Every structure is written in C-alpha cells, then in structure tokens.
C-alpha cells in the first residue's frame, strides 16, 4: 500500500493508569494508533480491555494520562468530546433501535435533517444514509428498511455506517474503536464486517480492534498490543508472530505445563450415538462418543457448535435425527435429558444458567429439586443442603456459605456453581459451551482440573470453546464444524493451534 | 438502616395503625374491629395470595376480577335453578380453573404476553358474566339463605370473640399457598422460573407446565373469591368482582418491597392487603369521603413502592 509512508500517529496515549480503590486495573499504559492501520488490542477477560475503552470513550476517568491527538495534547473529558476529536465507538452490545428505519439509526445521535425547522426531511435523511453506506461498499441494504428486518450482522454494519456519516458541523471520524464486534455475528456476517473494516483502512482511517479471538486478529490486524493484568506485555507488528506467541503473552504461561493431561485410558464403550441430527441450523450431524472421552467442537462463530449442544440437551427443536444414550434412544427435551444424567452448562451463564436473585444452594440444586424431593412433592431442604455442601466442595467454590446470593460471587465462582450443578448426580454426559468464558486465570485452571477429573471418573464430555489452547490440550478428539455440518474429526495428538486454525478456516476461505 | 430499608413498608403500616388508634382510641384497636377488618379484606386476600403465585412465576393476571364476577354469577344462577349448593360451588370453581388454564395456555403455547392474554380474557370473562346473568343482578330469593348466612356468620373462638367464616377461608388459602410456595418442589421451581425463565428451561425445569399451573391456581382463587362475594353480599352482579384485580396487584407490588431482590412474597402480600384494609376501615371511621379514600390509597401505594426502590437503588 502506497499510503504506508504517509502514515502518521493519530492518537497517542502515554502513562495511562487507572485504579479502583486499591486495585490497579491499568498500569502505565502507552498506546499509539496510526492512520491507515488496524491495531488489535488483545487480552483475556479481566485484563483491563474494557476499562481502557471506557477511558477512551470518556466514561471512566483515568488517574494519570497524557493523550495526544494528531500531536496535540488533549483531555478525554467526556463522551461529547469524542465527536470533536473524531473517535467513534462500536460496542459489543449494539446501541440501536430496531423499530426505526436504517436511516434513522444511522443518523442516531446526529441532527436529523429538517424542513421548516420541525418536519423531518425524509428524502435528505435517506440520501445521507444511503451515501454513507455506499461509501463503505454496502449496496444491498435499503435505508428505508426497518432495522428489525435486518440480520444481526447487517445491523452491525448499519451501526458502523452511523460512525461514518458525514454531515455539516460534524467532524468526520478518523479512529474507530470496535469492542468485540463479532460476539454475535456468524461467519459470513463477520467476513462482511472485515471487508468494510479493510476498506476503512484503505481510506486512511485508524481502527482499534478489541478482541480475544486470535483467528480474527490474524485475519485482520497489522499491529497488536497485548494486555495482561493491566499492563501492555507485548506491542509489535503482527507479521511473523504465531498464535502461540500471542497466547503466551495473553496468559503469561506456556501452554503445555499448565493444562492437566489425561492419566487414564478411554474405555471403548459407546455412551452417545447421534444419527442424522438436523434442525434449522444443523445439517445431518452424526457422531458418537466413548465413555470418559472429551470431545471438542471447533469451528468459527456460527458454525453450529452452540446449536449442536443445544440440540443435544433438547433446547432447540429437531427436524429429524436420533440420539442414543448408552444404547437407548432418548427424546431430547430438557426435562428429560437432565433426568437421564445429561448435564449442560450454557454459553451465557448469567442469562441462560443462573437465577441471579437466588442463593448458591438454589442454583446448584436447581435441576434436582424433584429428584431429591420428599414423596416427589415436598422440597427437601436438608438433603439438598447436604448434597450441595458436598458438591461445592468438589468444585472448590469460594463463597461465604451455600446461602450466599449468587450475584455476589465472581464470574469464576459463578461458573463453579454451574459445574456443581452439572456434576450433581455424576452425569454420563456433560455438555459444555465455552466453559471458561469470563473466568479469571486462576479459576480457569481449577475448571480444567474439574473437567479432567470428571472425564477420568467416566463422564463423557462434549465441549465447545473458542479458546484453541484449551481445546487442544483437554480434548481427545475434535470435531470441526462449518455451516452446521461436521467437516472432519481430528485426533488432538500432535495437534497445534495453527493446524486447528487452518482446518477451521478451510471451508470459508474456499468460499471466499 | 438495613432493617428500615427492608421493613420500611412494615413501619409505614404500623404508623398508619398508630395514627388511627390515636384518632379513634375507643373503637379502632379492638378485637372486634380487627376481626371486622379481616372479614372485609378476606376476599381480596384470597385473590392476592393466588395472584402472588402467578407473579412469583414472573407473570401477572388482569382477568381475576371479571373471573370472580363470572364464577359468582355461575354459582348464583345454578343455585337459583335449585341445584344443590355444593354442586353450584363445584361447577363455579371448575369454571375458575378452566379460565385460569386458558390464561396459562395463551401465555405459554400461544406465546402471548401475560398483559395481552389476560387483558383479552378480562373482557371475555366479563362478557360471559353479563351473558350468563342476562345483565341482571341476582338477589333476594334467588340466593339461598344459608349462603348469605355463611357470609355473615362466624365461629366462636372464646367468649365474645368470633372468627368470621370468610376470614377462616382466607386463612386456609394463606396456609395452602404458603406451603405451595415454600415447601413444595413446584413452588421452588416457580421461583426459578420467575427469576430466570431461560435458565430454568435449560436446567430441565418444566417451565410451561409450571406457568399454566400458576394461572390455574389463580383461576381457582378467583372462583373462591367470586363465591365469597356472593355469600357476603347475598347477591350476584355481573361486575361485582371488578375492583379486585387492581387491588390484588397493588397488594403484591407493595409486598414486593419486603424482599431484598424485589420478589413477590406471601408475607409482603398479606401486609399489602392489610394496609389497604386498615386504610379503608380507619378512614371510614374518621368519616372521610370514599372518593378521598381512593386518592389516599393511591398515594400510599406509590409512596411505599417508590420509597423502597429509591432506598434500594442507592445501595
């Protein structure tokens, strides 16, 4: 690219520090963002990424910071200033209004064009919106369409256009900050977003791309900064880096030493046999799993990992297919599955897993109120207390007691409660969706240990995760999914992240 | 301070009681007056208790008032035709149960919001009540004497203190609902559904079944309340249950201030009903216009809920 030589520093942060009480969240951070480049900000959950973004957007006040925009020193006071400086934010949670049209959403936060001071000038509004979309190469979205009719990915693009609108009196943005924008996008939607981002880069814009997904970073970014425990531990060009480098920088550990290895052999005893599973998102899925085996589900976002787990626990309707558990055919309905010793830990523990206003005991025993009841009718608090106390000890839960409200616990301990529930009656099959998401590094280690121990005592485990390292070192075998189909089954012996990554990308690169 | 935040509404209730006690030292704080209050609120109690069940599960039911009118009318018409009283009671309660199940099916299988579904059935049941009674009020000889006697009657406890039958019914319903919500599996599961429906479903709890059950119980509650109204007034009118719904929901809302997490709870509902009952009783004793009473009641409901949400948010 010819613009390379003309790149200049758009935003420079120096000595950024932030603490909440006695806890240092960010320590002496320096960050320089150049025009015409995509800068990735990597880090595990809790590394300080979101605090950094909040400071950039003016929501949080830093303790110490020197900030230069185009060489000029400036204070990041509050969000209103961002329009003046020319930074736009696209947050993970989309701030959009589905009832309104695409144009209204694009113009959200700006003055909508008017006639005679009070009437909306629709024709002008639509043309401005259409223009901003055209400039990003988005030609198939109609500005008059209601936003609720668009899919999630297109909504994200619309939001992005909102950050790209040019109106008199509004400074055109030069820097775009995207906070894990692909969290709710599928593969094609992600590809489309990336195309737009690359186009922005060609226009000489600067992009700060925050994520913890290595695959995306390699696909997209020029430079990378890695945050760990509030410090920048790595800052360099992405070229020549391997994902192992980045993982090590993110976690501060070398992979092999930290993950518990299998100490027993898997018995050849088919526990699960799935034939021809199909529904809206799955296409003729067939596979089987042995007793004590840890089976991984890999694939890009939208490949059907989550949907397969949901189908197995009976959360989504099936069009066809059969699930056999230890040789017996079973109808996948959630109430049924838990009774048949199948446990499930969903992806989003706060919205899908826990009843936040209830206690540790309530949440741990939730699936077994009936099983442990007196005459199947009366709540057996005494028995539940005993069993809960035992099982939370097994997962090493740190809480003041089993009556502590669940919302008071940290993410890691909340996840341990999910594991306590899942292990309550020594399940034959354990389904895990992103088992370490939003969990700090220490709790992660303990969760790996829990998973390993469960498998060694004979529980078959199927886990989906976007953290390649844990997939490779925990799983015995990995099924690679794409577009709702299993495209291959690979042993993890001798597997590296790079190989796995390649296999996951195979189909999409072919399509592109 | 924590105690005050949690039990602010209770202190408010005590203040109201003290106020009336000071204003009417001879008549307000007597056993007789309190038994009278319990009789006055007994019907509202039954509806509020079963409404609490529905609201614990995260739904609510606007149709209870017109359902109570309908079941009362059905019972009265059956009695007028000379059917045995027990048969009339049975069929009325069955009607309540059916209506409740209908509400439950509309919100679960038809996936309507509780608001829309029960707004629809509110009108539907009201229309059925008018149709069944031909728009007329049934009174006088149409209602058997024993029914009216029951509504005014009481059992002696000791010496002069007699507990009204209607109060006894409310106490029985209170105990049954308390056992259901606290001691049974379905009660605890219903708390889970109200707390997080999706998580409950994924944890293997039969969410739809429980929600239908909650509406069904509320239907029976409305049925009982409708019959209690007929008994107390010795008449049946196709709109006489109307006031129950808003008061029941208000009582549950006031009661929710007793829980740290703002959950509906039975003890709170009881206090909520008693606040409404004591206000109406005390203000009447002070000879305050019923229209003004209504204004004061509204203000107190808003104040209780606002006070508790303000103090809780600040934390």
Structural class of chain B: mainly alpha
- Major sheet strand order of chain B: 1-2
How does the major sheet of chain A shape up? 6 strands, mixed
Mean pLDDT of chain A: 83
Determine the fraction of residues in helical runs of chain B and give it as a percent range: over 70%
Strand count of chain B: 2
Unreliable segments of 5+ consecutive residues of chain A: 1-5, 507-512
Q: Strand arrangement, largest sheet of chain A?
A: 6-9-10-3-11-12
Taken together, the total number of domains of chain A comes to 4
Characterize the quaternary organization of these chains.
Answer: heterodimer
* Structural class determined from secondary elements of chain A: alpha/beta
Distance between the termini of chain A: 22 Å
Main sheet of chain B? 2 strands, antiparallel
Average pLDDT reading of chain B: 91
Strand content of chain B: under 5%
According to CATH, what is the topology of the largest domain in chain A?
Answer: Rossmann fold
The name CATH uses for the topology of chain B is ABC transporter involved in vitamin B12 uptake, BtuC
Give a verbal description of the structure:
The complex is a heterodimer of chains A (512) and B (315). Chain A contains 18 helices and 22 strands. Chain A has helices at 49-56, 81-85, 102-106, 122-134, 152-162, 187-202, 214-220, 243-251, 255-258, 305-313, 334-339, 349-353, 360-365, 381-394, 411-422, 441-456, 468-474, 497-511, and strands at 9-20, 23-34, 37-43, 64-69, 72-73, 87-90, 114-115, 119-120, 175-179, 206-211, 223-228, 231-237, 270-278, 285-290, 294-298, 320-325, 328-330, 342-345, 429-433, 460-464, 477-482, 485-491. In chain A, the strands form five sheets. Chain A has a six-stranded mixed beta sheet with strand order 6-9-10-3-11-12, sandwiched between helices. A six-stranded mixed beta sheet of chain A has the order 18-19-20-15-21-22, with helices on both faces. A four-stranded antiparallel beta sheet of chain A has the order 2-1-4-5, with no helix packed on it. Chain A has four domains: 1-86 and 174-252, P-loop containing nucleotide triphosphate hydrolases (Rossmann fold, 3-Layer(aba) Sandwich); 94-170, no CATH class; 267-341 and 427-437 and 458-512, P-loop containing nucleotide triphosphate hydrolases (Rossmann fold), CATH 3.40.50.300; 349-425, no CATH class. The longest helix of chain A is centred in the middle third of the chain and has 16 residues, at 187-202. In chain A, helix 5 (152-162) packs parallel to helix 6 (187-202). Chain A is an alpha/beta fold. Chain B has 315 residues and is mainly α. Chain B has helices at residues 2-23, 31-56, 64-80, 85-108, 114-133, 145-152, 165-183, 185-195, 197-202, 207-233, 242-256, 266-285, 290-313; strands at residues 154-158, 161-164. A two-stranded antiparallel sheet of chain B has the order 1-2. The longest helix of chain B has 27 residues, at 207-233. Chains A and B meet through helix 11 and helix 12 of A and helix 8 and helix 9 of B.
